[in-house]
Amino acid sequence: MAYQTEYPFTLPRGYMDENGTVHREGTMRFATAADEILPLKDPRVQQNPAYLSVVLMTRVITKLGTLPAIDNRIVEKLPSSDMAYLQNLYQQINAVEPIRVEATCPHCGEKFKVEVSLLGE
């Protein structure tokens, strides 16, 4: 099974650049620990915690249409429906998947998978 680190997406509305071109197709990568920690030092995030989403999306969106780079200005100008879409995608691709182990029934010998929690849940 291949390890996927980048995920393509299509924004519901898209970002319109200064030439009127709408950019909807993009790619988002897995977040790293640094992606989640370093933005907390950003003065804009410290003044307004809601700005964390903007800084975080700027770090993990690797491509949007034909734009040469993604910066805070671009993410700030996304329609709110696109921002909600991206936040949902971020949660999906960075969610911790449950650990499944193979078990065998001691009575009938049937093999099956069981989810195991390491967090005491």
List keywords for this structure.
single chain, 121 residues, alpha+beta, 3-stranded antiparallel sheet, two-stranded antiparallel ribbon, elongated
Helix-strand blueprint:
Blueprint: E1 6-16, E2 22-29, H1 33-37, H2 43-47, H3 52-60, E3 61-64, H4 72-76, H5 80-94, E4 99-104, E5 111-116
Antiparallel strand pairs: 1-2, 2-3, 4-5
Tell me about this structure.
With about 120 residues, the chain is α+β, with helices and mostly antiparallel strands. It has one domain (about 5-115). Helices cover about 30% and strands about 30% of the residues. The protein contains 5 helices and 5 strands; from the N terminus they run ββαααβααββ. The strands form 2 sheets. The chain has a 3-stranded antiparallel sheet with strand order 1-2-3. The longest helix has 15 residues, at about 80-95. The protein is elongated and about 70 Å long. It starts with 5 loop residues before the first strand and ends in a 5-residue tail after the last strand. The mean pLDDT is about 90.
